[in-house]
Write a structure and sequence with these properties.
The protein is mainly alpha-helical. About 70% of the residues lie in helices and about 0% in strands. Helix 2 packs antiparallel against helix 16. It is globular, with a radius of gyration of 21 Å. The termini are close together. The relative contact order is 0.15.
């Protein structure tokens, strides 16, 4: 087992402030986004300066702290994927209608990938948990304060003073909800989750609500599974009870969801074509067909769409912006990271944080169907997703025989 793999099991790295830095970094990116909008209104340049500083400041910490500045190496597959992403994101920027903006986002995203690898190379299990707890508590405070300041009854949270888009608030809230799973004291965890669930409901974001349910289900199932079959059986009975209750009171459940999430309205209802996104998806696909190899420029598709403000689909946006090879490179990087987390999350010891990151990743991949970008550094949810997939080189310990029979792991000679 390598030192990189041990970070979820033992304290192999020197004691440092890296866990606290992680929590402050993630919360600070949201604070920069929020206060940048408050100070700058709609001035994009000022907001970008805030975000850029909030994302990159840990580089200075890693230069002077008792941590490794040069992170552990990735596997050959991961390294090739990152290199291909870098090459095609740079190439696509030459064809971008906003070449300078695209180039800036490329640099910022590559720095985000580097920072994610640095954190993963320096965090042990205790520090990782500490950082996630701190992020959950700090950002809950920010979100609750923002909701108190912005919310107007009868409207979606975020539209009160038009500071942040409701879906952006919900996106951030989804990662806070999942990070609360790092809090071991049940009462505190439930308080944080309850506050964040309220924020998500106030935003009216259906995608975020589904994402946290998916993430919570994955993380909860993995953790319960480590306790053996009787606990899993009890969990299954509970799920059947909930499903039966929903079926029995389907009308009342639908009416409640309709009031909270506007399921039957003309602009956001079930028959609205994903709230009008289908047309944007169609045009984004057309952009890809016109530029299938190089793409239209990193973070530039929204400047070429004839409908809507963006594609509202991270997968189509990435495909259109980077072309097929760049998109496949990102897909390989994500698949590799998820496979590593899957193996680690099944271990009786050391699976606490990986199960959380895997659940968050599943929820995030669902959210990307409706959000603007797949890889992003402008919000803590996307940064946590980068942390999840940017895993260093590892050696997969064999799982117990029972687990291998029930959940076979696909061998990959390029990983470990």
């Amino acid at each position: 087992m390598t030192d990189a793999d041990d970070m979820f099991l033992d304290e192999t790295h020197p004691r440092s402030w890296v866990g606290i830095v992680l929590g402050v970094w993630l919360a600070g990116v949201f604070a920069a986004s929020l206060f940048g909008r408050l100070d700058a209104g709609r001035e994009a340049i000022t907001s970008m300066v805030w975000i850029g500083a909030a994302v990159t400041w840990p580089l200075a910490y890693f230069m002077v702290a008792r941590c490794r500045f040069v992170p552990d190496a990735m596997s050959m597959l991961g390294t090739v994927a990152v290199v291909l992403f870098g090459i095609f994101s740079i190439l696509s920027s030459f064809f971008s209608p906003v070449a300078l903006l695209s180039s800036g986002y490329v640099v910022l995203t590559l720095l985000g990938l580097w920072l994610a690898l640095q954190f993963n190379s320096n965090l042990d299990a205790e520090q990782y948990e500490q950082g996630l707890k701190l992020f959950a508590v700090l950002t809950t405070g920010l979100l609750v304060a923002f909701a108190w300041y912005d919310y107007v009854p009868g409207t979606r949270l975020g539209t009160g003073k038009n500071i942040l888009n409701p879906n952006t608030i919900a996106l951030v809230s989804a990662s806070v909800f999942m990070a609360a799973m790092a809090i071991r004291t049940l009462a505190i965890r439930l308080v944080v989750m309850g506050l964040i669930a309220t924020v998500i409901v106030l935003t009216g974001s259906r995608a975020a609500a589904i994402a946290v349910v998916l993430g919570l289900t994955v993380t909860g199932w993995l953790r319960l599974r480590s306790h053996g079959r009787p606990v899993l059986l009890l969990f299954g009975v509970g799920c059947l009870f909930v499903a039966g209750t929903v079926l029995m009171y389907g009308g009342q459940v639908y009416d409640t969801l309709d009031r909270l999430y506007s399921l039957s309205t003309a602009d956001r209802g079930i028959g609205s074509g994903a709230s009008g996104r289908l047309e944007a998806w169609k045009w984004t696909w057309e952009l890809f067909l016109r530029n299938p190899f190089i793409g239209v420029g990193f973070r530039a598709h929204e400047f070429l769409l004839r409908v809507d403000s963006s594609s509202h689909n991270g997968y189509l946006a990435t495909l259109a912006e980077l072309g097929l090879i760049g998109f496949l490179a990102i897909a390989c990087l994500i698949a590799r990271g998820l496979q590593i987390l899957w193996v680690r999350a099944q271990r009786p010891e050391g699976g606490f944080v990986p199960s959380l990151l895997l659940g968050l990743s599943v929820g995030y991949l669902f959210l990307a169907v409706f959000e603007r970008f797949l890889l992003n550094v402008g919000n803590p949810t996307s940064l946590l997703f980068l942390l999840a997939v940017m895993q260093p080189q590892w050696d997969a310990d064999p799982l117990p025989e029972e687990d291998e029979l029930a959940f076979p792991v696909i061998e990959d000679s390029t990983v470990g």
